[in-house]
Amino acid sequence: MNNISYIATEKLLPNPNQPRHQFQSEEMLSLANSIKENGILQPLLIRRMNNSDYCEVIAGERRLRAAILAGIPKVPCIEMECDREKSAVVSILENVQRQDLTFFEEANAIGQLISVFGMSRDDVSKYLGKSQSAISNKLRLLKFPADARYFIEKEGLTERHARALLCIENEKDLWTVLNVIKARGLNVAQTESYISTFYAKPKRKKNEHKAVFKDFRIFVNTVNKAIKTMQESGIDAVSDKTETDDYIEFRVKIPKTVSTEPKLKVLSAKQA
């Protein structure tokens, strides 16, 4: 069992790889009051820095901040023997597993594990107990520019809001939609509907036009039907069709004067 030692709060330094960047004041006050009443129930995880009196916090920065806020001079700690890199990885994993990070903080943390510390998506997936598709969806959130991330978090939009916004590639359009969401108080479904209506690019069906124009027989029949209709109406229209390997040519002559004499139907012997 690891030994617990009490270390002065001024000797404890935050981990630079701590994925958490937001410490809500109300939550911190609540935790500080809890620590005043009950003490710190779970010791902080730390590592000694270059055999000095100072230690880096691997896990437990919120507890450290709350203890300082509560005026507690020393906090219980468990010292872990590890280098800076392992400390960073453990800190990130511990915080992500707690599931109380914002979704952008979690995405940043996962991105760090992969890009900075060389972990594969498969390794991250196993450590965090998440599917690889869930890891990929988290990483896609990093496509947002920093100011858009700040706006999304500040306005209390959800991760599903953010995912709906990922289809907007133009930053100007992104800000247009963000401001509409804020002004109208759109929920996720309304946001998706708004983006679909005004910002989704309509996809032209493959060979849609070719399918119409390729079947030239439709147009040939239409021309023939039009000529026949004119002839049945007493217009002596005459057509001449020429067909080659490349095209079909129609020459149609339509008299400007219409015959007023009714055409007689030739009856067959049976009809007579």
Features:
about 270 residues; alpha/beta; Conserved hypothetical protein from pyrococcus furiosus pfu- 392566-001, ParB domain; 5-stranded mixed beta sheet; two-stranded antiparallel sheet; 7 strands; disordered C terminus
Question: How would you characterize this protein structure?
Answer:
- The chain is an alpha/beta fold.
- It has four domains: 4-83, Alpha-Beta Complex (Conserved hypothetical protein from pyrococcus furiosus pfu- 392566-001, ParB domain), CATH 3.90.1530.10; 102-143; 144-198, no CATH class; 208-253, no CATH class.
- Helices cover 49% and strands 13% of the residues.
- The chain has twelve helices and seven strands.
- It has helices at residues 25-38, 61-70, 84-98, 103-115, 121-128, 132-140, 146-154, 159-165, 171-184, 188-198, 208-214, 217-232; strands at residues 4-8, 12-13, 44-48, 55-59, 74-79, 238-243, 248-253.
- The protein has a five-stranded mixed β-sheet.
- Strand 3 (44-48) and strand 4 (55-59) form a beta hairpin.
- It is elongated, with a radius of gyration of 38 Å.
- The termini are far apart.
